[in-house]
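Project standup — Tuesday

K.O.: blocked on the structure for the chain from last sprint. Re-posting the sequence here as requested.
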Amino acid sequence: MPKEQQLAMKYMEALTDHDYPTLRRFYSRETIFFDKTANTTYTGSRQIIGFLQRAHEGVLEYRLNIEHMFNTGSLVVIIGSYRLRGPGDQFGKPGKIIDLAVPGVTTLKFDNNTERLIEQMDLMDYQTMSDQLESQ
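H.V.: unblocked you, prediction finished:
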């Protein structure tokens, strides 16, 4: 596996494990976290970690099932599904435990010298997520 993909795997493991100390080592003040589908951007370690902590609050399980991964230089593209199991409160389903598998594409661009993340861009299938929420 190429070095860039190994780095992406370490980053994604820290992300899905809620390992904020490791994530901080990947981020800088200039790192960009962009959810293009939701048109939401966070810049810098502090904003990104704050967002992730809010998003992960109460989550029982969060993992990424990778279907395909490739890279061109320091840009790594990951195609798969994010699996989330947790409290329904965040999704308008109070008192329920929800289980979602949201398909998406994540691109990660790294600085090869520092091994820090320059940009993460997510393209998520929120319609599938909405359909899954409707049935729960």
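K.O.: great, moving the ticket to review. Helices lie at 3-16, 20-26, 45-56, 126-134. The two ends are 39 Å apart (CA to CA).
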